[in-house]
């Protein structure tokens, strides 16, 4: 279960890098990150 949480943190850092590239992408990625964040929290 801890491995899933660590993997989730890695995806969030990748999302942060993609954010700075495109503003339109940012909004779509943020929506995905919110959904994945809920899944990660449930799995933890």
Commentary on this structure:
It is built from 2 helices and no strands. The protein has 44 residues and is an all-alpha fold. The protein has one domain (2-43).
SSE diagram, text form:
Blueprint: H1 2-19, H2 23-43
Shape: elongated
Q: What is the rounded distance between the termini?
A: 6 Å
Q: Please count the helical segments.
A: 2
Count of the domains: 1
Number of strands: 0
- Going by helix content, strand content and strand pairing, the class is mainly alpha
Largest sheet: none
Rounded radius of gyration (Å): 11 Å
Beta-strand percentage range: under 5%
Low-pLDDT runs: none
Order of helices and strands: HH
What oligomerization state is this entry in? single chain
**pLDDT average, as an integer?**
62
Helix content: over 70%
């Amino acid at each position: 279960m801890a491995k899933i949480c660590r993997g989730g943190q890695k995806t969030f850092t990748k999302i942060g890098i993609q954010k700075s590239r495109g503003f339109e992408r940012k909004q779509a990625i943020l929506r995905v990150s919110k959904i994945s964040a809920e899944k990660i929290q449930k799995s933890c």
